[in-house]
Automatic annotation (TrEMBL), chain A:
Pfam families per UniProt: PhnI
Gene Ontology biological process: organic phosphonate metabolic process
Entry protein name: Alpha-D-ribose 1-methylphosphonate 5-triphosphate synthase subunit PhnI
Lineage: Archaea, Methanobacteriati, Methanobacteriota, Stenosarchaea group, Halobacteria
Source species, domain of life: Archaea
Disordered: annotated span: 134-153, 353-376
UniProtKB/TrEMBL annotation, chain B:
Keywords: Lyase
Claim: Glycosyltransferase is one of the keywords in the record: no
Name this polypeptide is given: Carbon-phosphorus lyase complex subunit PhnJ
Region (Disordered): 300-334
Species in which this protein is naturally found: Halarchaeum nitratireducens
Keyword Transport: no
Domain of life: Archaea
UniProtKB/TrEMBL annotation, chain C:
Record GO biological process: organic phosphonate catabolic process
Native source species: Halarchaeum nitratireducens
Xref: PANTHER family: PHOSPHONATES UTILIZATION ATP-BINDING PROTEIN PHNK-RELATED
Protein name as annotated: ABC transporter ATP-binding protein
N-terminal signal peptide: none
A GO molecular function held by the record: ATP binding
Keyword list, A-Z: ATP-binding, Nucleotide-binding
């Protein structure tokens, strides 16, 4: 069936959707529940929340289920849903130092105030397929025998970056202006973009794209090779002002990943200080947040020499929804523009009197000339 | 959106369950009229007004994520939904066809959320959303054409930087684009731009008319209707108001030319003054058919039907091709 | 009446303070203000340029001559704090205050700059002809054959092989690129051409030919010019009158022959004696 010249396009769409849905159901097992996804495949829903810019674990798990595991599609569902919601209130600014930390490492120092907290991680696990997971039933909690006596870990920890800033070694970021921070979901980004817009765009960036661009800088297409001051995972309080009393109240908390780095590119000549980079995103995604840190530092250099140092380049390519849509739109019919391109190549071949060429020749010419003409 | 049967989980998230319940309802109940909330629609309308006030100038607006993929008409649908009311009749075409899957999908969203009538007849519609074509039948001052735009800036051909191009527009500095055309002629003997032909609006702003064929570019000039160009991914809106001068860039001695179809006529209606597309048949034959399928059907009933049949005013555009190029295969100009 | 005149032109990079002017300059032996650290690129510069005249500005690097040249040539990059005034015979008001659009219009018909660095002046991906054509197209030429003809004649005039006209500019030699810049600068018959270090990056033999070519055209076309160079040979060849700059100040000026044969200022003497 062609996808145009057929009547009843709407019926076709419904059929296609039903076929897609069937793919999920044609297996022999029970449908996976949203709770199972939320609890057992939390990395997927965390990625969808991070890229969707909406903290809603159960909705994210639902989106992952509906998208059959495609995280970009899931973040798309979340964003489309978010855009229909009314905004009730805005939270007050929280200091990341208030984070209740479950994991925290500082590669810059052997020991730090509050100590290194390895927390839950697979970083040092040997990557061997665990065949016991296939067909497990009634697994046991491997930590149930732990003896957690003694001292409680502190609720909050000093920030390693603050130690360096107190010593005057790190360039101070520009303080907040009196204006409200930019909101890239309400105001389109224009260039040059403020750092508030840059950080939002990176925080919502597609994980693979952020990782790849961050890696490009590290790989040598750029000057930024940071030392991580700290990578943390934990929960940050969400606070609002009470509408009547004006008193700040904590209403919930969100799990975030945070990373900060110093970059030995001196921000100033007369008073040499480290440049820095910062990353923060919803959910547990250390890879993305470290890459974000590199990109933040890299973008602050603001050059056109390397992709990762060019703010426009990074911000214009990092969004998953944008790249997803435009890449996939090539599947749409393009025969109107293609007819126009055919007209150009025929006219020009006629001018240059090459009409009698063989098929091979004409297709070679076509390749060359289409590069000029087919840029829609 | 696909309905999803969500297992009822025992959970403390009451509000989330309420949300899931509302999503379980048939169709799009629970969403605002015309999908977008009123605040957003007002903002889009304001941006459109601004675009009308500065013809050809790209107005940034807060493009919302839509339930369609970006690049698939999300800008167009935001503009359409912001200006449609329940008494309006809506037409959607994609590459000239009402029946393309994507057009059908956009039409379905508007019908389900905005309760509009839909039509395939150009002359019956109040608002037409289109991708890559302007209908053959002349539009009137009561109609609005909303064009979907993938790339908003004509200057992107010569410089990828948005910041640099915004500066050029602000200063009407189009030297680079002219050099691009000049080098085109140097290399190919004529301007080798197929669609997305750079076009000057009201003598001030250079505009990307979206990937319409060159055939459609003259229809923008001194038209009776309003054209709204909307990009979702790039978050820009721009407009050509009625009766605005719109001129494709070209040299005095290397004129703008529309596509040529030689002696070809539409296989179905016999038309020789509409934009045709080639169809490669299973028998190896190339046939030509009208691209505007709705007008083609009308012409099949009445082959004499003019493009401005329903109008007082004559339309001066198309299918003419400047005499320059009309030698061998020449345009079959009227 | 002079074609162009500058009065008290000053350009300071940095925050600037009240002491800046007093504590920099020739007598102070520096262009950096010891109080606030700002760099006084040029200060209190007066000059005038007569029709058809060539004015030389000479000085070592860091003397402020390029900062001054950028201001006189209406460069859009206006960093630093700028004071003073520049009057031009064909435009009312202070050129240092004009908006971008006026600046753009004046640069497309009145005042042309030949940049020191090729990349600032040319788009190396365009053809050589395209770079010259850009000036014509930007000032409203719309006939393709007319543009071709004019570009070809400018190539002939500046002694670039016309058959190279359609090749990408990055395939040209350094001397040819400099000639393309000059052709571009002359394309729309400007009143004034500002040449910033016209010999940078060229072999000595190429330098002489480019300068000879420019001198010939300058006389044929009766165009006035300001030539900025660290090289006394360049001003000796081209300039009727010369200003000598040091630490952002004009320390000596006069007819070129007089300045070079009978330098009054000690620094000028050193400069001449140290020239090879």
């Amino acid at each position: 069936m062609g996808y145009v010249a057929v009547k009843a396009g709407e019926e076709l769409i419904e059929r296609a959707e039903e076929l897609f849905e069937k793919q999920r159901l044609e297996g022999e097992t029970d449908p996976v529940s949203v709770d199972q996804l939320d609890e057992q495949l939390g990395r997927l829903s965390a990625q969808a929340m991070s890229e969707g810019g909406l903290y809603a674990p159960r909705l994210a798990a639902l989106a992952v289920k509906q998208a059959q595991g495609d995280t970009v599609e899931a973040s798309f569902l979340l964003r489309a849903y978010r855009s229909t919601l009314e905004r009730w209130d805005e939270t007050t600014v929280v200091d990341p130092a208030e984070m209740v930390t479950t994991r925290r490492v500082s590669p810059a120092y052997k020991d730090i105030p509050g100590g290194q907290i390895l927390g839950p991680t697979k970083d040092y696990t040997q990557r061997l397929l665990d065949f016991d997971l296939d067909g497990e039933d009634d697994p046991e909690d491997p930590t149930q025998e732990w003896d957690i006596g003694g001292e409680e870990p502190p609720d909050t920890l000093d920030n390693v970056m603050d130690v360096l800033r107190d010593q005057g070694l790190v360039h101070e970021p520009d303080g907040p202006t009196d204006d409200d921070p930019a909101d890239i979901t309400r105001d389109p980004v224009t260039y040059p973009a403020g750092r508030d817009a840059v950080l939002q765009a990176l925080a919502r960036g597609e994980t693979g794209a952020v990782t790849a661009l961050g890696y490009s800088a590290l790989r040598g297409y750029g000057q930024v090779h940071p030392t991580l001051a700290e990578v943390r995972v934990g929960r940050l309080p969400v606070k609002i002002e009470h509408p009547y009393t004006g008193v700040e109240a904590t209403v919930t908390s969100v799990e975030v990943s945070e990373s900060e780095a110093v970059v030995p590119v001196y921000a100033k000549r007369d008073d040499p200080q480290f440049a820095f980079g910062y990353g923060l995103t919803f959910g547990r995604n250390e890879r993305k947040v470290i890459a974000m840190t590199i990109l933040d530092a890299s973008i602050q250099l603001d050059t056109e020499d390397e992709p990762a140092e060019n703010p426009e380049f990074v911000l214009n390519t990092v969004d998953g929804l944008d790249s997803f849509g435009f890449i996939e739109h090539l599947k749409l019919p393009h025969y109107v523009t293609f007819q126009s391109i055919l007209d150009r190549i025929r006219a020009i071949r006629e001018n240059e009197s090459v009409g009698a060429g063989t098929a091979d020749e004409s297709s070679r010419d076509a390749d060359e000339q289409l590069a000029e003409a087919s840029d829609d | 959106m696909t309905d999803t049967e969500t297992p009822r989980a025992e959970t403390s998230y009451e509000s989330v369950d309420a949300v899931l319940d509302s999503l379980d309802d048939e169709g799009l109940d629970g969403y605002s009229y015309a999908y977008l909330d009123e605040h957003t629609k007002r903002e889009v309308r304001r941006s459109i007004l601004k675009a009308v006030a500065i013809p050809g100038h790209q107005v940034p607006y807060a493009s919302r994520p839509m339930p369609l993929a970006r690049g698939w008409g999300t800008g167009g649908i935001q503009a359409s939904l912001s200006i449609l009311g329940p008494t309006d009749t809506f037409k959607v075409i994609d590459q000239g066809s009402d029946e393309s899957v994507n057009a059908a999908n956009i039409r379905r969203l508007a019908r389900d959320t905005a309760a509009v009538e839909t039509t395939t007849d150009t002359t019956d519609s109040d608002v037409i959303q289109t991708r890559h074509r302007i209908p053959e039948e002349a539009l009137s001052e009561d109609q609005i054409l909303v064009l979907q735009v993938p790339v908003t800036d004509a200057l992107r051909k010569v410089d990828p930087s948005d910041a640099a191009n915004r500066r050029r527009h602000a200063h009407k500095n189009y030297g680079k684009m002219w050099v691009h055309l000049y080098e085109n002629v140097v290399e190919w003997g004529e301007i080798n731009i197929a669609s997305r032909y750079p076009t000057m609006v009201a003598g001030r702003y250079l505009m990307d008319p979206s990937p319409i064929p060159r055939w459609d570019v003259p229809k923008l000039d001194d038209a009776d209707n309003l054209f709204v160009f909307a990009a979702g991914r790039e978050a820009r809106l721009y407009a050509v108001p009625p009766n605005t001068d719109v001129e494709p860039l070209a040299f005095e001695d290397r004129e703008f030319q529309v596509e040529r179809f030689g002696d070809a006529t539409c296989q179905f209606c016999g038309s020789d003054d509409t934009y045709l597309v080639e169809i490669e048949g299973d028998d190896g034959e190339t046939r030509y058919v009208c691209n505007d399928t709705s007008f083609c059907e009308k012409r099949q009933d009445d082959p004499e039907l003019a493009k401005d049949h329903h109008r007082e005013r004559d339309v001066s555009w198309g299918p003419g091709t400047p005499s320059e190029g009309a030698d061998a295969t020449g345009g079959d100009g009227t | 009446m002079s074609l162009l005149s500058a009065d008290g032109v000053t350009r300071i990079y940095g925050s600037g303070c009240e002491a800046c002017r007093d504590r920099t300059g020739d007598a102070a032996g520096t262009n950096q203000c010891p109080a606030c650290g700002s760099v006084v690129a040029c200060a209190d510069v007066d000059l005038d340029l007569q029709p058809r005249e060539v004015l030389g500005i000479v000085g070592e690097s860091g003397s402020g001559k390029s900062s001054l040249a950028e201001l006189l040539a209406l460069e859009p990059n206006q960093d630093g704090h700028v004071h003073g005034s520049v009057e031009y015979a064909n435009h009312p008001g202070n050129l240092l205050d004009v908006d971008y659009e006026t600046r753009h219009a004046l640069r497309n018909g009145h005042i042309s700059l030949v940049h020191q660095h090729i990349r600032d002046g040319l788009d190396l991906d365009f053809s050589g002809g395209g770079n010259v054509a850009e000036k014509l197209l930007a000032s409203g030429w719309r006939n393709y054959e007319d543009v071709r003809e004019r570009v070809a004649s400018l190539f002939e005039e500046t002694e670039i092989p016309v058959e190279r006209m359609d090749d990408p500019t990055h395939t040209y030699s350094g001397g040819m690129q400099r000639r393309v810049q000059i052709a571009r600068a002359l394309a729309i018959n400007p009143e004034i051409v500002v040449l910033d270090e016209p010999t940078t990056g060229l072999d000595v033999s190429v330098q002489a030919r480019v300068l000879d070519m420019f001198r010939r055209i300058q006389r044929e076309e009766d165009v006035a010019a300001i030539v900025v160079s660290h090289d006394l040979g360049v001003v000796r060849l081209l300039a009727d009158r010369t200003l000598v700059m040091r630490h952002g100040r004009v320390i000596e000026s006069g007819l070129t022959d007089r300045v070079l044969e009978d330098p009054h200022h000690e620094y000028t003497q050193t400069l001449i004696n140290s020239a090879i």
